[in-house]
Design brief:
Blueprint (H helix, E strand, L loop, with lengths): L6 E4 L4 E4 L15 E3 L11 H16 L2 E4 H4 L4 E6 L6 H12 L3 E8 L7 E4 L6 E5 L6 E6 L9 E5 L6 E5 L14 E9 L5 H19 L6
Parallel strand pairs: 4-7
Antiparallel strand pairs: 1-2, 1-3, 5-10, 6-12, 7-8, 8-11, 9-10, 9-12
Length: 224
């Protein structure tokens, strides 16, 4: 409404109708029988059927996925563990991931899928529910969080990235969803990497430094 209580006037002469109550009598968004009398140029009033069709079209476009060949992503990643965690905090989930792997991990990134995650349908395989996600880091592991409805009863699914580290690849059936469920069931994807291991040369220098410090403490000053 652009912040102004403007009104519209129909060709029949009926005035004072608020914008959100006026529905033009044709499927077209602009119609000859609708004219605006307010001070600002508004978004033209639209027919209810037109709005429904527009909303359906936008939904289809937003949920559509591009395709990518299996040869590019290299393989389907391996599901390691799943759970229905009560705490969805990044630190809590990262600790759970470390517990499942038996090693410390580094949280890399998290992508919310409310506005779309750029899913790509994987081709070159018999699976029809296989999707690839373009990872923002070279993650060794990634976690897929979904809504309710999985046959496993879980919502957090941890994968080992065994193919190209540029992509996370999984199927909806791995998550316990039937064929009538779409990829929009996924809430977000979190990425994890290994804890950096010091280079041997760095470890050696550190050891020499500690040794030198210990020897220095053993030496006592000589008094004349």
């Amino acid at each position: 409404m652009l912040g102004v209580a403007a009104s519209y006037t129909l060709a029949a002469g009926v005035s004072g109708i608020p914008r959100n109550e006026l529905i033009c009598p044709d499927i077209l968004p602009w119609h000859a029988s609708c004219s605006y009398t307010g001070p600002f140029l508004p978004i033209p009033p639209m027919n209810k059927n037109f709005l429904r069709l527009l909303g359906l079209a936008m939904t289809c476009v937003s949920s559509a996925a591009w395709s990518i060949p299996l040869s590019t992503v290299e393989s389907i990643d391996r599901l390691i563990a799943s759970a229905n965690l009560n705490n969805g905090g990044d630190t809590y989930v990262a600790n759970w991931v470390s517990d499942q792997l038996g090693t410390s991990v580094v949280f890399g990134d998290k992508t919310e899928c409310d506005a779309g995650c750029g899913w790509q349908s994987v081709t070159g395989t018999a699976a029809t529910d296989l999707y690839a996600f373009d990872l923002t880091t070279s993650a060794n592991w990634f976690l897929v969080k979904t809504g309710n409805g999985s046959s496993t009863g879980d919502r957090y699914f941890l994968f080992e990235n065994i193919g190209s580290l540029d992509y996370g690849v999984f199927s909806l059936s791995q998550l316990g969803f039937s064929s009538n469920v779409t990829i929009t069931k996924v809430s977000h994807v979190s990425e994890y990497g290994s804890t950096p291991v010091p280079e041997p040369a760095t470890v050696a220098l550190l050891g020499l430094g500690v040794l030198g410090l210990a020897l220095g403490r053993k030496r006592k000053p000589t008094h004349a």
